[in-house]
Amino acid sequence: MLGEVVILAKGLDVRANEKNFIELKEYIDSIRHSQGLLMQTLHKAQEIFGYLPIEVQKFISTELDIPLSEVYGVTTFYTQFSTEPKGKHKIGVCLGTACYVKGAQQILDKLSKELKVEVGQTTKDNLFTLEATRCLGCCGLAPVMMIDQDVYGKLDPKNIPEILAKYNDRG
């Protein structure tokens, strides 16, 4: 089946992620006559690969017979799509007004220092991605951050290492 995928991708080297590209092709074939094909395919591709690198966008472009510029345009327009790999755990620090005035910037600075990354970056081991977010709706707990679906409120920078340790798969 890989030979068929490579041919359809017009020379795109899919061998490094053979299983993922085959899964994506099978998905595309199963929904080929649906409405909103590009959006559905981008969501599925991100689910399979974890993000949408240009190689995956080229594959989608070829499979759907849509210009790469259109695939790239949709991918970069919608914030739910990522062209960069994300960490296993996503950390979002609220920078809404209530959190900001209660010390969210210090929380963000401590996380950045502990993880050795800037906002928007992923740790070298792909364990954490650090992001700044808007209001998380927990203003009474300010400052607030979320790690995956877990909410942490009334944060103090000194507690950050202990919180991160709960998610640290290395130890």
What does this structure look like?
With 171 residues, the chain is of the alpha+beta class. It folds into 2 domains: 2-77; 89-165, Glutaredoxin (3-Layer(aba) Sandwich), CATH 3.40.30. It has 8 helices and 4 strands. The protein has a 4-stranded mixed β-sheet with strand order 2-1-3-4, covered by helices on one side. The radius of gyration is 20 Å and the shape is elongated. The termini are far apart.
C-alpha-based Rg, rounded: 20 Å
Q: What pattern of helices and strands is seen along the backbone?
A: HHHHHEHHEEEH
Helicity level: 40-55%
Low-confidence segments, ≥5 residues, pLDDT <50? 1-12
Number of domains: 2
CATH superfamily of the largest domain: Glutaredoxin
What is the residue-mean pLDDT, rounded to a whole number? 89
Strand order of the largest sheet: 2-1-3-4
Number of helices: 8
CATH topology of the largest domain: Glutaredoxin
How would you describe the shape? elongated
CATH class of the largest domain: Alpha Beta
- The helix-and-strand class reads alpha+beta
Note the main attributes of this structure.
2 domains; 8 helices; single chain; 171 residues; Glutaredoxin; four-stranded mixed β-sheet
Task: Itemize the secondary structure elements and their pairings.
Layout: H1 2-8, H2 18-31, H3 37-49, H4 54-64, H5 68-77, E1 89-94, H6 97-101, H7 104-115, E2 128-133, E3 145-147, E4 150-152, H8 160-165
Parallel strand pairs: 1-2
Antiparallel strand pairs: 1-3, 3-4
Helix pairs in contact: 2-3, 3-4, 4-5
Report a brief summary of the structure.
The chain is of the alpha+beta class and 171 residues long. The protein has 8 helices and 4 strands. The chain is 46% helix and 11% strand.
